[in-house]
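Intended use. Records like the one below are meant for learning the mapping from a protein sequence to its folded structure. Do not use them to infer anything beyond what is encoded.
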Amino acid sequence: MTHDDPDHALSEDELSIIEFQSPGRFKIDNPESPSALSDEWSAAPFTLGVSTGAQAFSDMGEVRQHALALIQQVGRSLIIYTPDLEPWLYNHSSIQRACSQFLLAHPRNRLRVLVGDSARAVKEGHRLVTLSRRLTSNFHVRKTHPDYPLNASSFLVADGCGMLIRPNAEQYSGHALYRDPGRASQQLRLFDAAWDRSLTDPDMRSFLI
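Structure written out for the chain above:
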């Protein structure tokens, strides 16, 4: 009986001389797990309406900390301008929770988001868009008018006195202000002018159906 016989069982001695060569190690680029995406962020240790001076930042973690601190402490009005709803910053459970708590704290609390291009959010889904669907009375998302675009920055203004701004939305660097009504009001006026000319986003409506 030869080893070509399918009914032949190899002995332990025969198995021991068979050499196995691994084809190597492979990297699998799976998306992050839901638990990784929902890890809690920590807020920057500054107080809205109290802390003075500009807090400069230059990396992604610092941007997140200041954004979360401002949103967690806002009490009346929050505006956000973002080119594309920046998922790395705004599509996170910590931000969604802070926005939800703010909006539910009082029926007159208001959140307005002005976005340049919502295509990515529509395609991939976004926590703030989902939240705006649930809280339609005081959370509004609109698209900038093509004839009245804002500059290339990304910013938020909290209660007309605190602000986070990145002059170039493609970079992390910028600064946060926790008590500067003058500069925050200037940014708010720019936002309001663009908001008055903004459009209902058809892509956003299709996402919300």
